[in-house]
Sequence to fold (322 residues):
Amino acid sequence: MSHHAIIASQAGGPEVFELVSRETPTPGPGQLLIKVAAVGVNFIETYQRSGVYPVKYPFIPGSEGSGVVEAVGEGVTDFAPGDRVATSEGAKTYAQYTLLQAEKASRVPAEVPLDQAAALPLQGMTAHYLINSSYNVKPGDTVLTYAGAGGVGLILIQLLKLRGATVITTTSTEEKAQLARAAGADYVLSYDEVPTRVREITEGRGVEVVYDGIGKDTFENSLGALKIRGTLVLFGGASGQVPPFDLQRLNAHGSLTVTRPKLNDFLLDAKERAWRSGELFDLVAQRKLDVRIGARFELAEAGAAHTALESRGTTGKVILVP
Fold:
């Protein structure tokens, strides 16, 4: 049996992607064969395709997706053919079929459409660990987060409001500001208003926590927005990496905390993975969490999907549908 997959034979622009026919794999011990329903497209794949991050070619991109279990390998007891699953920890998901280690699969409730399930794992579990584990947000906290209309931003705002926090966010356009407000943001600022407006909003105190996925361009303003003993969670570098930093400045700014987490360190075992994904999918099933799919493309249009993502014009999540 064969299936179609997207392959890059060399590094380059979106035009290097080709739709090719491949032999459908057989699941080995501990693996699931997934018939892919939808694929989450992420920035890391543009870096892998372009050669910024080295990969072995020919290369099939993709770590995120959803689908239905077609077959299980030896030793798999937690899943059976027909089960609906999603993951952010797969490989080669830009395809009609993909193999996945069973312990890295999350169950998708029947009430959650599979296209939404593909759009949730990476950004959703990122938002979950940020507000529960990097800094545990309490009701009444005031929080600053950037890129409020982005994939993480829209989910983060909703989870923060469910937690009872006051949310300040930033966007680059009025259209994006409207999306952030619709998600529940209390204040939507332009980037150049941080930290001055944040200080005004908090009557000079500053915020308990800043969630910063931008990095180099926002880091100084993030520090300037924090209250005494505040926490800066630097979880990405969309504008580039933060240069070396003098830790003594944390003392001078008011005994601040800075942490630089990554998702994999907050998915250490099946129990932790099930806790995070279970809470998120339950909220979607209960219609308390809206997952915005900003653009969808056919699998063969993977190059166009990358072009859209790299333009920074997309909101919410970009997905591929095989």
About this structure: The two ends are 16 Å apart (CA to CA).
